[in-house]
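Service request form, structural biology core

Requester: graduate student, group of Dr. S.
Request type: structure prediction, single chain
Budget code: on file
Notes: please return the result as structure tokens.

Sequence provided:
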Amino acid sequence: MEYLRALAREGHFGRAAEACHVSQPALSAGIRKLEAELGVQIVQRGQRFEGFTPEGEEVLRWGQRMLAERDALDHTLSSMLSGLSGVLRIGAIPTALSVSSLLTAPLRIQHPSVRFALESMSSREIVTRLNDFDIDVGMTYVDGEPLGRVRVLPLYRERYLFLTPGDGAFAGRDAVTWNEAAAADLCLLTPSMQNRRILDGYFAEAGAEAAPVVETDTISAVYAHVAAMGLSSVVPHTWLHGFGVPPGARALSLPPPKRSFHVGLVLPAAGPESLLARTLVDTAGEAELSSRLDDAVRRHQQ
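Core staff response, request fulfilled:
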């Protein structure tokens, strides 16, 4: 089963064998033995790896679940003996990355042996990798685009601010409209990102359409261009907690839209529950994220 998981991940017999620390003939022999035991062909064979048969895809899904259950058992027994440890694998949409430290930091204080693997992913990728047991928990929008079969824990409701040069066209203002924001010289995330699709919906709701000067898929690039080019941006309020306000810029209020979206934790709906993920859920219940994020907004607007 570990050979199959590695082969699915690497898409190449040689790299899969290397990842499993065995020779390629040993990996191939192990898969053939499994095929003989189950009485089905698992791998489509040719000059190179050509994918899994339909039966092989089903075997892979069961194998991933079996390995996840074994890992969960290992973590549970290890924690009973010596305290919680291991690597908590988190997939987060880029707009939630800056908030993740509000959960990982207190968890680390309570459990110093825990380590974290935090990856930036799209909301669709988070759900796929949860179902494949490649990550333990996701941080994404939980009431926007369909997520499929996952368990959800809302953390905070996202709202938006208008970052703009302090001496620019909106100097002396405390707030702007969505129409005014759309007409400004903007730096925004790319349309492939759910955050941008949400913003485009808000602009359309106000009868406007944004034509950004710069589009990027990273928060750091948004901040860099706001600071260096004197551009404006519409950003989630959570960014102020992690990044503050760029030098020379101000954060102005925007009218609340008709519909806002929750960001939360998502976990597999079925299969083994990671003890590390369960501990993160408990930590989130005590973190008071919404009030701490609101405090950061008030501090930076003042």
